[in-house]
Protein: Type II toxin-antitoxin system PemK/MazF family toxin
Organism: Planobispora rosea
Amino acid sequence: MRRGEIWTIEGIGRAIGREDRIVLIVSHDALAGSAPMVMVAPIDTAGAAPQTLVTVPIADPLPALLRLDMITAVRRERLRTPRGRLSPEDQERVDIALRTALDL
């Protein structure tokens, strides 16, 4: 697992949130590769999320909107299937949005 990879994550919860979701790994590679928890940002593939200063639209590896306003930590074992990796250009846009979201 590396920063910039897109994964399917096992859903949890009751009526809402049970289905599997798609997320972007935003943890530093040293942490994403060994820590029990991984920092991720949800990915909206349905077009329901509004575009803001901290969302990033991408077209590859899938058309979606990255939600850098909703970063969370998940257990590594919930990550199921790798779906691809961001381009260097998209990763740079994610880095800018993360700095904005976290006021860094």
Summary: The helical segments are 29-32, 88-101. The mean pLDDT is 88. The CA atoms of residues 60 and 87 lie 8 Å apart. The radius of gyration is 13 Å.
